[in-house]
Amino acid sequence: MSGSPALIMRLVASAFSVAEKAGNIVRTVLHSGELGIVEKTGANDLQTLADRLAQQSICASLSRRFPKITIIGEEELPCEEVREDLVENGQNEEILQKKCPPEYSELTEEELVVWVDPLDGTKEYTEASRCHRHQTEVQIPHTGSVVTQPHSTALWLLDNVTVLIGIAYGGRAIAGVINQPFYNYQLGTGATLGRTMWGMLGLGAFGFKLQNPPDDKRIVTTTRSHSNKLVTDCVDAMEPHEVIRVGGAGNKIIQLVEGKASAYVFASPGCKKWDTCATEALLHAVGGKLTDMHGNAYRYDANVKYMNSAGVLATLRNHEYYVSRVPQSVLQALKSS
């Protein structure tokens, strides 16, 4: 073999740089105050200018370098020429230096599917933007809890926002990049904003400090804005000591890998493949697990339906315990696909 990095490593290295570019776009649009919001299916399903520009940037950048890869993005956008300033050509050098797991060293572009959520947590992003327009400096303690902050200090919602790029092979999520554009926002003026995490099966995960959840209590993270009786019944059945309600699938997985939550429980068909491909890969890379509420794995082939119709259950450990706690009523309502 030559000294050139394997295709998958070059793709992940590109996805890392592209996610950072998308994160910068997300920040720029917020600071402009012109979000260009449209409702896709209702008030809880929004699209902003940041969603549109970030997806254009991600898809155009990756497709130029890897033209035969299938890329599936959340936003339905018209076919149009993408501005050159949105294209990112860089690749993360640290990733290029990593040794590719042998089972992925010979993968071709045609075998890979990339799932893109250009702005996960759009609702929270729009709410934080309203606060941002009226308050230029807000100091908020970074406690990880989201249940007691008043609306007037809604900038804490920026923690909920992520950019997700997941890579699948053979229907399985094998690598993922998560950019958190507003990480460190609470440190105020002069702080370096944003961080990018990534993970790959057989290699591990990078860009954050992995921490186990507490041994002495169950902390469940679940949806902030898409709840219903099925969701609350399932959360209650876990007998949690604490419930953290936050936005964004990416943010909930970060809660798990940083030890702030024991399980991510969402007994609803609201999540899509672009929400879970990157997050599942990152979680699985550190020994965690993401399944539907029945304990079955999702597939990420190019031709699968986008909806995760049987809900999402994710843990860093003790996954079978949480699967065993899912009520029969939830299992009957959410048929495994």
What does this protein structure show overall?
β1 and β2 (45-47) form a beta hairpin. It is globular, with a radius of gyration of 19 Å. It has helices at residues 7-32, 49-65, 93-96, 122-134, 229-237, 249-257, 273-285, 319-325, 328-333, and strands at residues 38-42, 45-47, 70-73, 112-120, 162-169, 172-180, 195-200, 204-206, 219-223, 242-246, 263-266, 289-291, 312-315. Helices cover 31% and strands 20% of the residues. It has 337 residues and is of the alpha+beta class. The protein has two domains: 7-133 and 155-206, Fructose-1,6-Bisphosphatase, subunit A, domain 1 (Fructose-1,6-Bisphosphatase, Chain A, domain 1); 219-333, D-Maltodextrin-Binding Protein, domain 2 (3-Layer(aba) Sandwich), CATH 3.40.190. This is 3'(2'),5'-bisphosphate nucleotidase 1. Belongs to the inositol monophosphatase superfamily.
